[in-house]
Design brief:
7% of the residues lie in helices and 51% in strands. The protein contains one helix and nine strands; from the N terminus they run βαββββββββ. It starts with a strand and ends in an 8-residue tail after the last strand.
């Protein structure tokens, strides 16, 4: 089942359980560009989601701004245990980038850790037709 994380969903038992299992926070920034970072891409549709069992939790559904950015999304993660010398727990988010004008989409998998800021670059290149 697909869940949109908004004010109406915050009291849902599935979300409460998800937050209890993922009390940490990480930040995600998204940069969409073309031409080897020379041109920002405005209006790229971005969806940030994670799967929990059969359930899809959508944390963001929107478009890049005039600088090709989605600025700082705060996402739940497993908490970091500072005294634990093992590899820290993480959570996998998917970032879907779609452009109707460029007729393309890309799916990125982003591993998020408590207290870390990740910058996900999205480069979309137009497909040129053959002559």
């Amino acid at each position: 089942m697909k869940y949109i994380i908004d004010d109406n969903f915050l009291d849902d038992s599935k979300y409460i359980e998800f937050i209890q299992n993922n009390p940490g926070k990480a930040n995600l920034k998204i940069r969409a560009f073309t031409a080897s970072e020379a041109l920002p891409l405005v209006g790229i549709h971005i969806v940030v989601r994670t799967m929990v069992g059969e359930d899809e939790f959508v944390f963001f559904d929107g478009e890049t701004d005039s600088s090709g950015m989605i600025h700082t999304l705060s996402l739940p993660t497993p908490s970091l245990m500072p005294d634990n010398l093992e590899t820290p727990n993480s959570i996998l988010y998917e970032v879907l980038a779609e452009s109707d004008t460029m007729n393309m989409s890309r799916l990125y998998q982003v591993r998020m850790y408590d207290g870390i800021c990740v910058i996900q670059n999205i480069e979309l290149l137009p497909e040129w037709g053959s002559n």
